[in-house]
Structure formats: C-alpha cells, structure tokens
C-alpha cells in the first residue's frame, strides 16, 4: 500500500534567467486507490452469497429469497459499483440499504469505505464509529478509521487505531501492512520493517506488504532490495498495478525514463482508474520533453480524482513551461482550491503571476506561502528577487539572508547575494558566496563563470582563467564562458588565444553582441583588419538596435572613442522622448551621438547600481563663498581614482596633488586600488594633504566618507576606464562633481556637472554633444609632470644611441609609439606611402601588443614597403622610453585616437609630431599638446593629404625639420605645456568659479578661464615636506577674476 510519489515544481528564479527547477516531493504512505479498506472478508462473503443467490434463483425462478430482495440487491449493486470505481453510484445504492436497515454493519463498513474514496474522511470516520457502536470489536472499522485519520494528517491517532485493530485480531495482515505505511510516514523505519515482515509472516502472498516493504527499502537507499520486493509482488500477482507503478518510480529516479514510461503504462493498463500512476506517467512525459502527452495524463488523473491538488499543480507547471501563463495561473489556483495548504502551488502561482506582470499579486502569493511556512526557502528567495529587480537592495538582501538561515542547500540566494556584494564592491564576500554555490553544486558552470568574473574584476586574472576553463569543461557549449575566457586572455596579453575564444563563443551563439563587439576591439588591438568594414557595419547595427531598445550598449565607451561609425546612423535613431537626444540628432554626427549614447547608457547603469545601496540623499556643505579676507575656510577638493600607482595618470599628475595651494585648497585623494608599492603611489600618498586607501570599502561606504569629509568639489579621474566606480558619483556625495583626465569624452551622466577640457579639444561648436558644462582651461587641459619628475631624461650625458636598440644609424626614422588599436588601414596606408616616397626611411613601432607585429609587417610588404623599413621594439620603462624617443626624427600620430600620454612623452623628448585633429575629443588632444608648445601651426594638419605631404616635406628638408626640433627643445622649460605649477593655479581658479556659481544659486554653466600670468620667480614646486612654502603672497582675489562667461 503506497501513495505514489508526485512531483511538485519549485521554481527558483535567478536574475536574468527564468530558470525553473523541478523538485520531487516524496510522501510515503498508502494510496487511497490501493488502500485496503478491510472489506476483503465482506466482499468474499458477498461473492459467496451472490453465487448462492444465483444458484437459488436457478432453483427458484419465482424469485423468493430468505431475505428482502431489494435490500440485498442494492447492497450487491453498491459493492459492484465500488469495485468499478463508481463511488457516487455506490453511495446511492448503499444509502438505500441504510434507509431500509441502519443497523447493518457490513453496509456501514462499505459506506465508510465509499466516503474514504470520495475524500470525505469525516463521514468515513462517522460511519465506522456508527458500526462500532453496534459491534464494538469490529477490527476492520478500526483499520478503516486509521486510514481516514492518516489522510487527515493525524498519523499518531492512525497508529493507535491500527494497533487496536491488531489487538482485536492479531492475524489481521492488512492492518500490519498499513501500520508499516504509517510508521514510514513518521520516519520510524525500523518499526515499519517489523510490521511488513509480520504481515508477510501471516500471509506470504500479501502483495501489498511486499510493495510496502519495497517502499521501505527504497526510503533507506536500498534500491536493489526495493527492486526485489516489487518483483516478488509481481511474481505473486503479475496484474498488481501498484507494484508496476512503484517499479517505474525506481527507474524514473535512476534516470531510465524509457523503462519508467513502459512500466507506468503497464500500471494504468492493468488499473485504468489509477490517478497516481497517471500523474507520474505525466511526469515522465514532461521529463522526456513531451508536454502535450504530459498534459493529457494530468487531465486523466484529475478526471479520476477531481480534488487532486498535485495533478493540478503539475499541469500548471507544464503550462508555465510552455509560456501559457494564463492556463498556468488558472490551474495553480485550482490546486490551491483543492489543497489550501499546498505551499508549492502558492510559490509557483507567484512565479507565474510575476512573469505575467502582476507583481503585486505575486508578492501576495509568496506571503501566503510564508504565512503557512515562514521558512519556505523558495518563497523567500523569490521575494528577494522581486525586491532586487525593484532596486530595493537592502530588502532583497534581507530575504536572501533569511533563506540562508533556513537552509544552506540552495544556491540561488548565495548567487544573488554575491551579485549584490559584487555590485557594491564587496568582492571578498561575493567570492565567499560563489564558493558556497560551488560547494552545493561543484558542477555549476554558471557559478564558476560568475566567480571568474569577480576574480577578473579584482585583477586575479589567472584564477579567473582557471574558473572559465573549468566551466567550459563542464559545459562546452556555454558561450558566456568562452567569451569571458577570451576577455581574461586579452587582459593577460594572450591576444591570439582571446580571438580564438571569442570566435568559439560566436560559433556557439552567433547573436552574441558582447562577443561581437569585444572580438572587434581585440582584432583592432593586433591590427587584424580582415573583414574590418563588415564587422564595423555589424557593430553599428548592434548599436542601432540597442539604442532603439534603450539597453546598455555592448560597445564600451572607452573602446568606442577609436571607432569610425557611419555618420548616417543618426538619421535612423529613434529617441524622440529625449530633448537631449533630439538636439543630437539634428546638430551632430551619428558618431558623436553613438559615443554620447554609450556614455549616457553607462551613466544610467551606474545610477541603477547606486540606487541598490538605498542610501538617503546626502546633506552637502552649505553654499557659502570662500572668504577673500584671509579667513581659515578653504575649498575642499576630492580626487577619486583607481590609478594612484604605476599608471599613466600618476605619471602625468604625480605633482598636482601636492602643488595645490594649501592656504586656499584642502586636497583629499581617495584611492580605489590597493597600494602597488611603487614610487608613483608613495609620492602621491606623501605629497597629498589627505590620502585614503578606500580599495577595500564598498562604494556606499566610500560615498559616505566623502560626504562626511565635506568635499565641495569631487573630481572623477577614471571616467569609464578600468577600475572606475562611477556609482560613487551617482550617489552624489558632493554638491559639485567634475570629470577630468581619465576618459577623453562626455560621461553622459546627469550627476557630473562639469568637464574640464580646453578650447581646442572641445570647441564651443561641439558643446551640445556633452552632457556636462564645459570648462575651458588656458593653453591645454592635459597636464604632465615632466619638469618635476623627468628632467634627467634630458641629460645629454644619459642619451641613448640608435645601436642600443638595433635602429639603423643612417636612415630617416619615422615613429609611432601609440598602442596598435589606435591604428587603422587608412593611416597605415598613408605611412606606407610616406615610406615609399622618402628614400632610406623606416617606421619605428612598438610591440604594443607583440601579437600585432606579424600582421603589420605583412600589410607593409603588401603595400610595397621593404621589410627592413618596419622596425619593432619592446615597450620600455618611462624614463628610458622618453630618452630613446629622441632617437627618431619625426613622430606620426594616429588620427582616429591621438597620442595623449605618448604625445607629451615625445614632445618632452624634443621629437616633433604631425597630427590630424578630427571631431571627437580623443582625436584632438595631440593638437592641443602641440599648440601648448607654441609650435602647433608647424605640427597640425587639416587633411590626410596634407598629413602625407607634411611628413614627406619635413623628411626631405632636413634643415627645416632640424629647426623645428631645435625650437621644440628650446621651449620645453618655458612653454605652458610643461608648466605644471601654472596649470595647477589655473585649475584652482576654475574650481573657485564653480563653487562661487553654486553659492550664488546659479546652475552649472560653460565658462572659460583666462591664463594667470606668473613672474619667473613665482613658478611653484612641491616640497618634500608636502607643504608648498613657495606660495607665499598669492592673492586669493585672483582666484575669482579673469573669467569669460561668453560660452553660456
């Protein structure tokens, strides 16, 4: 006697997935359709009586019997209908007998059995109690009442009645068998085994006892023994449908779905009215991917048992998986009507309602589930998911943590908590959570990829690669794992391996925007220009679709600055709801719009991340002007960067933080990266007035610290470069927030008020493509630190020779030290033309990366350039790089993305350049550098044709080139480009202008700062003490003067 195992769907929804996980719910006990209702003896007697009556009828055709004919006829009909499963008709006939004779205990016993099958357990108990009042020692009545109490959930009372039945009739084998079932429900497996064996000792042919003993063996993990028990039952009675069903259950759990299907079919063939077997037959069909067949089976089960809650639940789940949400909702509700305490139905109804968009109703369902069982882990997790989607991160985290207090066996809450921790910059806890995910399921490829992503983000790239490779070994078709492995390979300098992995990801999933865009960028990094136009067209299509869908673009802003995007794209952009976008469509090219759109989308993404911290709005410092009368108030400036260390930003700005005038400005540096123990980090840490390592803090804690430090102007030195935490700025901890240096373009962020730039890099005619207000610094916005840090690079006693690097002594050497991704076929073809036109010339490039060398050599040869005209050297340390730059004769810039840091390097080395400014900010920086030397007219050109002619002319006119070189070397110590102190004073004046506008209640606005003139003895240098004692009598009033607001 077994109640067949029914599957219940637990849906566990993860962000970005919709995964549905099926979990079987085992419930050992007796199946009502196979339950002995202890009418066996009665039915035997009735059968004998029926045979006797037929014999009497043959002998007595007149129809006279010793008992009233109608009463016996109705009783016989009731028994017949009961055996056929027609319980309502059986009850009608039995009721007629009861009306004629209410004291017939055999009829009362039958009525109790009928009510049991109709699930009216109270009436079943009442009729058996009525029979016991007539015949107190009627053992079968106690047995049937035990069955009813077991169905009502009172297993202890059921056991008492089974034991009383056995006390009345010790050889009552059915009672022993059903008592075993009750003990199994209580987990008392030892006693259950004893009862089964007692039943079999009384009747070795009792197939129910063999079957229940098999269930007991199965519950103890003794599968082979269970199999033997079921086979023994079938040996005794090959038509015993229950044993076939239980045998099918064994094969289903072992994964042999075809054998399970065969045996469930045999069960329902032998017993057509077997709803539990139809339920599990439906489960097998569903597992085999045959949903329509599963639906038919569930419907058959419901026809046989109209109040079959589990069948409604599984039917609903099948509809859910077929995306028939309306039918799923209907049947989940029906399951709850049948069983108001059906926890999984509430939970799964919530999932269906949520996916249907009825989120408030979904929340009610989850709460109803939790009202019945406060520790229901799936409902807790699903509530957390809703709050996560609503950006109510603290509420989401509390539900995930509540789930983990209930169970540590579910991976979803660990996974989702890890996502929260990672977004908050709490990488240690994120990794711990992913470790738990992998503890629960060591083969969880998603968990490995997610942990790998976290490792990669904190620079532990080798560990990330290991996780990605493990994920691929587990799930070779997982495109995300291949794409992320490619990204990690690229970060490790293994560019060819990265390209191979990106291509594999796209082979597995051709429509994979991130892989397509990252493959394009990786190919550009090694100058692989095959199918370049086709790939850019594909990327343009991706950008267009993502703009139309208002989703975060797959092209990263920092990559996009070097991309030539089709100008006609703007005409196809539908973004009519945004006045800003409308202006862009009408006033700028699509290239600029696309770049700005990428930035705006990433800025919006940062706002979303920031909102997950659920911080209240910050109170900002009072808008009180800084006193001009020598008071103690100072302007509090905060710099935020992940690049305080051995990074170009620190190479360029190393002296800036200590050069600020401490009488007027109080500087705070917030380091987002840990100490790399380099001289660059140590210098900034020592010279800045306040330096705080916040690398281990979450973004919300950093924002709180900045606010508590009462920062008035906060500078973002990262933009969209690696290591940035723009969500800090999205929380707006300071009243004025500024973008500078890290990212050469607009941030597109509403929470960034100003962009510090200059008039050449960001002309007024392009102001509308910036979301920030533009601040034009005098001369050049791009600062450097060479006069303070790299004077020794100019020492004539330390200069290198060409032979030190294998450079030809007698050749004219053109050079480009930019990263290879900044190059494109047009500029390289121009270089090849130059080489062919200038006799005895060569082009000096860097292995930046090395994987590009072979391709560029091949391209050059294909253009008719001699192999020896292309020279590659390795990347060198900063001072060596500057010194050896002077070995070249002329620097050739890349128009699509200029030399920025490299441009200042070569100009400091005294090497002239040729640059072609275009429209984008990143294409105009080198021109600004040249202008700040005072020699810009001799180095800036206006077309590619002029670029080529200028290079050839200077190479062929050595005296002219030498004169330019001499002038450049002569102005290095006096020109504005290398005067860091003057640049800092001009920047401070801009800061004060921003603050005064704020104090006057005006919104941020464009303005231009005119140059502040220094006398020769006023040049400022940072002192080793970190205090600028050279700033003696600097007049604060000068900070408030010489501004032009004509840009408003």
UniProtKB/TrEMBL annotation:
TPR repeats (start-end): 105-138, 139-172, 173-206, 207-240, 241-274, 275-308, 309-342, 343-376, 411-444, 445-478, 479-512
InterPro entries the record matches: OGT (IPR037919), OGT/SEC/SPY_C (IPR029489), Sel1-like (IPR006597), TPR-like_helical_dom_sf (IPR011990), TPR_rpt (IPR019734)
Q: Please give the coiled-coil regions recorded for this protein.
A: none
| Gene Ontology biological process terms in this record | gibberellic acid mediated signaling pathway; protein O-linked glycosylation
Pathway(s) served? Protein modification; protein glycosylation
Question: What keywords appear on the UniProt entry?
Answer: Gibberellin signaling pathway, Glycosyltransferase, Repeat, TPR repeat, Transferase
EC id: 2.4.1.255
O-GlcNAc transferase C-terminal domain location, by residue? 602-788, 801-987
Give the Gene Ontology MF terms in alphabetical order. Answer: protein O-acetylglucosaminyltransferase activity
At the top of the EC hierarchy, this enzyme's class is transferase
What top-level branch of life does the organism fall under? Eukaryota
Protein family per UniProt: Belongs to the glycosyltransferase 41 family. O-GlcNAc transferase subfamily.
What protein name does the entry list?
Probable UDP-N-acetylglucosamine--peptide N-acetylglucosaminyltransferase SPINDLY
Q: Which organism is it from?
A: Cucumis melo var. makuwa (Oriental melon)
């Amino acid at each position: 006697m077994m109640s067949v195992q029914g599957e219940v769907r637990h849906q566990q929804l993860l962000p970005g997935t919709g995964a549905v996980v099926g979990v079987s719910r085992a419930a050992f006990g007796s199946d009502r359709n196979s339950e002995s209702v202890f009418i066996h003896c009665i039915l035997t007697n009735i059968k004998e009586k029926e045979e006797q009556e037929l014999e009497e009828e043959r002998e007595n055709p007149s129809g006279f019997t010793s008992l009233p004919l109608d009463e016996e006829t109705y009783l016989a009909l009731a028994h017949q209908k009961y055996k056929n499963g027609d319980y309502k008709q059986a009850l009608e006939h039995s009721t007629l007998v009861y009306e004629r004779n209410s004291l017939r205990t055999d009829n009362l016993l039958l009525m109790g059995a009928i009510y049991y099958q109709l699930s009216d357990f109270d009436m079943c108990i009442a009729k058996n109690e009525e029979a016991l009042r007539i015949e107190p020692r009627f053992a079968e009545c106690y047995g049937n009442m035990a069955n009813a109490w077991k169905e009502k959930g009172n297993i202890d009372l059921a056991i008492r009645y089974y034991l009383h039945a056995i006390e009345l009739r010790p050889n009552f084998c059915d009672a022993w068998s059903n008592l075993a079932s009750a003990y199994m429900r209580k987990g008392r497996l030892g006693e259950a085994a004893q009862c089964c064996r007692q039943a079999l000792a009384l009747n070795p042919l009792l197939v129910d006892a063999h079957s229940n003993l098999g269930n007991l063996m199965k519950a103890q993990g003794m599968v082979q023994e269970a199999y033997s028990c079921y086979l023994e039952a079938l040996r005794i009675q090959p038509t015993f449908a229950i044993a076939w069903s239980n045998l099918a259950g064994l094969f289903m759990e072992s994964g042999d779905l075809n054998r399970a299907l065969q045996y469930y079919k045999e069960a329902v063939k032998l017993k057509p009215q077997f709803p539990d077997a139809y339920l599990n037959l439906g489960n097998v069909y569903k597992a085999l991917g045959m949903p329509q067949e599963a639906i038919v089976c569930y419907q058959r089960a419901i026809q046989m048992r109209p109040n079959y809650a589990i069948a409604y639940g599984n039917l609903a789940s099948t509809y859910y998986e077929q995306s028939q949400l309306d039918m799923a909702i209907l049947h989940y509700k029906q399951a709850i009507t049948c069983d108001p305490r059906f926890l999984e139905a509430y939970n799964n109804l919530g999932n269906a309602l949520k996916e249907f968009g009825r989120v408030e109703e979904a929340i009610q369902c989850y709460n109803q589930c939790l009202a019945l069982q406060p520790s229901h882990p799936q409902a807790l997790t699903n509530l957390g998911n809703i709050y996560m989607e609503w950006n109510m991160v603290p509420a989401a985290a509390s539900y995930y943590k509540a789930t983990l207090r209930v169970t540590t066996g579910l991976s979803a809450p660990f996974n989702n908590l890890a996502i929260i921790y990672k977004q908050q910059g709490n990488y240690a806890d994120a990794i711990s959570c992913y470790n738990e995910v992998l503890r629960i399921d060591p083969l969880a490829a998603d968990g490995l990829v997610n942990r790998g992503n976290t490792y990669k983000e904190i620079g532990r790239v080798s560990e990330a690669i290991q996780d990605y490779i493990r994920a691929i070994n587990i799930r070779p078709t997982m495109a995300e794992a291949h794409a992320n492995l490619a990204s990690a390979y690229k970060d490790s300098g293994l560019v060819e391996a990265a390209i191979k992995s990106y291509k594999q990801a796209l082979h597995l999933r051709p429509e994979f925007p991130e892989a397509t865009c990252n493959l394009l960028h990786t190919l550009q990094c090694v100058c692989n220009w095959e199918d370049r136009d086709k790939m850019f067209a594909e990327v343009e299509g991706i950008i267009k679709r993502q703009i139309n869908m208002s989703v975060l673009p797959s092209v990263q802003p920092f990559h996009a600055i070097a991309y030539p995007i089709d100008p006609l794209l703007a005409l196809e952009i539908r973004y009519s709801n945004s006045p800003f976008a409308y202006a862009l469509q009408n006033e700028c090219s699509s290239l600029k719009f696309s770049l700005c759109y990428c930035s705006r989308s990433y800025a919006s993404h940062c706002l979303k991340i920031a909102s997950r911290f659920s911080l209240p709005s910050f109170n900002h410092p009072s808008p009180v002007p800084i006193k001009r009368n020598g008071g103690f108030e100072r302007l509090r400036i905060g710099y935020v960067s992940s690049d305080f260390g051995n990074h170009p930003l620190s190479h360029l700005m190393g002296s800036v933080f200590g050069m600020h005038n401490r009488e007027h400005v109080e500087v705070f540096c917030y380091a987002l990266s840990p100490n790399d123990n380099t001289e660059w980090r140590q210098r900034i840490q020592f010279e800045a007035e306040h330096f705080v390592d916040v690398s281990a803090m979450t973004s919300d804690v950093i924002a709180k610290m900045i606010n508590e430090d009462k920062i008035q102007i906060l500078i973002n030195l990262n933009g969209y470069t690696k290591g940035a935490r723009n969500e800090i700025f999205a929380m707006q901890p300071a009243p004025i927030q500024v973008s500078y240096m890290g990212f050469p373009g607009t941030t597109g962020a509403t929470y960034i008020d100003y962009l510090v730039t200059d008039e050449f890099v960001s002309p007024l005619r392009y102001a509308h493509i910036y979301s920030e207000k533009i601040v034009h610094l005098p001369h050049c916005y791009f600062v450097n630190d060479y006069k303070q840090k790299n004077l020794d690079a100019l020492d004539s006693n330390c200069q290198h020779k060409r032979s030190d690097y294998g450079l030809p002594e007698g050749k004219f050497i053109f050079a480009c030290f930019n990263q290879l991704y900044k190059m494109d076929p047009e500029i390289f073809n121009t270089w090849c033309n130059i080489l062919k036109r200038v006799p005895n010339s060569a082009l000096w490039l860097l292995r930046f990366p090395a994987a590009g060398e072979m391709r560029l050599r091949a391209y050059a040869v294909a253009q008719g350039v001699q192999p020896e005209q292309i020279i590659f050297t390795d990347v060198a340390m900063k001072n060596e790089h500057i010194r050896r730059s002077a070995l070249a004769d002329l620097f050739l810039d890349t128009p699509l993305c200029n030399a920025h840091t490299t441009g200042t390097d070569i100009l400091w080395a005294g090497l002239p350049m040729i640059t072609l400014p275009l429209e984008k900010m990143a294409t105009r920086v080198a021109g600004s550098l040249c202008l700040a030397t005072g020699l810009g007219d001799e180095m800036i050109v206006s077309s590619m044709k002029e670029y080529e002619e200028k290079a050839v002319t200077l190479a062929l006119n050595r005296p002219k080139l030498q004169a330019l070189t001499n002038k450049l070397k002569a102005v290095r110590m006096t020109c504005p480009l290398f005067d860091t102190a003057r640049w800092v004073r001009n920047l401070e004046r801009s800061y004060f202008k921003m603050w005064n506008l704020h104090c006057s209640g005006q919104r941020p606005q464009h303005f231009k700062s005119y140059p502040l003139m220094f006398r020769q003895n006023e040049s400022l240098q940072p002192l080793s003490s970190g205090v600028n004692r050279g700033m003696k009598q600097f007049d604060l009033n000068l900070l408030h003067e010489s501004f032009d607001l004509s840009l408003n």
